[in-house]
Amino acid sequence: MNTTDPTAPAITYADSGVDTAAGDRAVELMKEAVSATHGPQVLGGIGAFAGLVDVSALKDYRRPLLASSTDGVGTKIAIAREMDVHDTIGRDLVGMVVDDIVVVGAAPLAMTDYIACGKVVPERIADIVRGIAEGCRDAGCALVGGETAEHPGLMAAEDYDVAGAAVGVVEADQLLGPERVRHGDVVIGMDASGLHSNGYSLVRAVIGAQNVALDTHVEDFGRTLGEEILEPTRIYTADILAVLADPRTAGAVHALSHVTGGGLAANLARVMPRGSAARVERSRWEPGAVFSQISRWGSVPQLNLEGTLNMGIGMVALVSAEQADATIAVLAERGLGARVIGEVVGEDSLPEPGSTLERVIAGAKGVEGGSVLLAGQHPGWA
């Protein structure tokens, strides 16, 4: 039985909070940026139900392995919202996803994104996707699809969150990982651009406790606090692939570790083989000013800081000692600073921790492999 009241006002989808026209406008604003990531291997255009990538080139592989990764950018979005700057978040998303793929030696092929929001603001959505597209171009990866979902009643009008996924390919006999690591290998640390996209719950808590406004100019940063902590994540994919392809560094890299949540030691331990350990010397690099500032403002214990933030090293490579200089030189030619920060030794030869700041990390992220010792102290740190 139809119980509809003919006198009641009609309720449309827009009345419920979902504006499909705004979604269409956002797509129009982002189309050019997305299309710029498409090479001849991408079929079809924007708006299809599925992105299509021609993978005929995989026929030339002896045994191609697909590598996949998915991630988001966490509470860094709160900073972007407060500053009303949204394109850098897209670059963060790409870095968090594709740099996990390149860790195994894989080249990313295609990426998709998902944006959930309380209300579609076309210009804001387009800014986010424009940043994703720029990051994909830097990584040599096609942005082949995405979804924007409006969730009124579940999210506030200004709220949004982003996630992404990507797939890449690596030849099976070129797969990087713990099984390639040898005693005597060196640990090369590559410069981070800043905080990247991890630990922002801690960072925001510290800033909130200090009641420091994001538009405050910080002399040590040479810019405002907001500009410093919104600095996008460095994308290492193209740099790593260049090292892997360069004849001067052929076979040099045995394993890689993307320094994300958990800090350097925990992530490096994930790629250490059983019976091996990496002894990392803090004295070989100085973290950027943002790390010491967060430490001072929040009186954050150093070990807690190191277990949360990247401390200025965003990617780590385990490399044959004979090819370490060549690897650093290739990275330098591409404008990426790197240096030897440690070496791989037998786990049984690790010295006992000599101070409260020296500790051994093992079994991180559920991986039962080797271990990592952080030793010494950074220049300029008490």
Automatic annotation (TrEMBL):
Main localization category: cytoplasm
PurM-like N-terminal domain residues are 66-170
InterPro entries linked to this entry: PurM-like_C_dom, PurM-like_C_sf, PurM-like_N, PurM-like_N_sf, PurM_cligase
Please list the residue ranges annotated as the PurM-like C-terminal domain.
183-348
* Reactions mediated catalytically: 2-formamido-N(1)-(5-O-phospho-beta-D-ribosyl)acetamidine + ATP = 5-amino-1-(5-phospho-beta-D-ribosyl)imidazole + ADP + phosphate + H(+)
Recorded superkingdom: Bacteria
Record-linked Gene3D superfamilies: PurM-like C-terminal domain, PurM-like, N-terminal domain
One GO process term, biological-process aspect: adenine biosynthetic process
Key word ATP-binding present in the record?
Answer: yes
Q: Name one Pfam family in it.
A: AIRS_C
Functional pathway: Purine metabolism; IMP biosynthesis via de novo pathway; 5-amino-1-(5-phospho-D-ribosyl)imidazole from N(2)-formyl-N(1)-(5-phospho-D-ribosyl)glycinamide: step 2/2
Gene Ontology CC entries for this record:
cytosol
From the Swiss-Prot or TrEMBL record, state where the protein is found. Cytoplasm
GO molecular function annotation: ATP binding; phosphoribosylamine-glycine ligase activity; phosphoribosylformylglycinamidine cyclo-ligase activity
**What UniProt keywords are attached to this protein's entry?**
ATP-binding, Cytoplasm, Ligase, Nucleotide-binding, Purine biosynthesis
Enzyme Commission number: 6.3.3.1
Entry's family note: Belongs to the AIR synthase family.
From the Swiss-Prot or TrEMBL record, give the protein name. Phosphoribosylformylglycinamidine cyclo-ligase
The gene is purM
